[in-house]
Amino acid sequence: MTTVPTLPLSHGAQLPAIGLGTWPLDDDAAATAVRTALEAGYRLVDTAENYGNEAGVGRGLRDAGVPREEVFLTTKLNRRWHSVDGVRTAWEHSVRRLGVEYLDLFLIHWPNPDQGTYPQAWEGLVGLLEEGKARAIGTSNFKPAHLERIVEATGVAPDVNQINLNPYATRGASVAADARHGVVTESWSPIKPAEMLADPVVTGLAERHGRTPAQVVLRWHTQRGYVPIPKSASPQRQAENLAIFDFALADDELAALDGLDRGEEHVTDSDEFGH
């Protein structure tokens, strides 16, 4: 079983350096995927209210038999809860569906600036952190301007900002803003689009290192200090995605992958989309 290294978060928790994404798995598929992933050595599991599979994720956690304190469980709240009290209600719903007593990481899923109340939601998350109901708190899909606003409002920066990030979308401005505030960047859809895994730069490095293209891209994430959360329901693919800490990409190889960046044209605009 692979042992995964961890990264320190600003409020004291240790975040595993790679995790399991669960979108768009339903409850049954999520339960099986979480169980097999935990058995393989994963210790970070990511879900969300909007995925509709929190109950399945919780079942997988129990089925795996791994002690609760060894698993870093993340979920996210929707826009309807963007108020101080609403965040508390969202927490209550999520822990009940998951069948747990606390969350390791609770995220605002999208900023929804059209609604304009994400600073109040952030204030609510800070309260949950102070009460020990969440070991870490964070944001998802926050741009630098969104991040600056919540830090200005509360004086508290997120532990994590989870964004769509991969070599085709390196998200330089967001990564730099996260770093300025001591925020760890998590990567959702870290090995998509599929065409990226067929890119000659990626396949060439995979051949050079005797690895799969996905392993090369995931190693790029971890060596750049990002925490990827690839989704896979296949035990074999899960194991491959996890087996990336026994090789390293050279500086010029990392730079070659950086050079694949296509900007943010295909990244969902969180000023326009959210739920």
Would you mind describing this structure in some detail?
The chain is an alpha/beta fold. It has a single domain, classed as TIM Barrel (Alpha-Beta Barrel), CATH 3.20.20.100. Helices cover 42% and strands 15% of the residues. It has eleven helices and ten strands. The strands form two sheets. Strands 3-4-5-6-7-8-9-10 form an eight-stranded parallel beta sheet. A two-stranded antiparallel ribbon has the order 1-2. Helix 3 packs across helix 4. It is globular and about 55 Å long. The mean pLDDT is 97.
Q: Indicate the overall shape.
A: globular
- Overall structural class, as computed from helix and strand content, comes to alpha/beta
Q: What's the multimeric state? A: single chain
Roughly what fraction of the amino acids lie in strands? 15-25%
Terminus-to-terminus distance:
37 Å
Average the pLDDT over all residues and give the rounded result. Answer: 97
Question: How would a crystallographer describe the biggest sheet?
Answer: 8 strands, parallel
Instruction: Please give the radius of gyration in angstroms.
Output: 18 Å
| H-E order | EEEHEHEHEHEHEHEHHHEHH
Number of helices: 11
CATH top level?
Alpha Beta
Low-confidence stretches: none
Widest sheet: strand ordering? 3-4-5-6-7-8-9-10
Count of domain modules:
1
- Give helix % range: 40-55%
- The CATH H-level superfamily is NADP-dependent oxidoreductase domain
- CATH second-level architecture: Alpha-Beta Barrel
The CATH topology corresponds to TIM Barrel
Beta strand count: 10
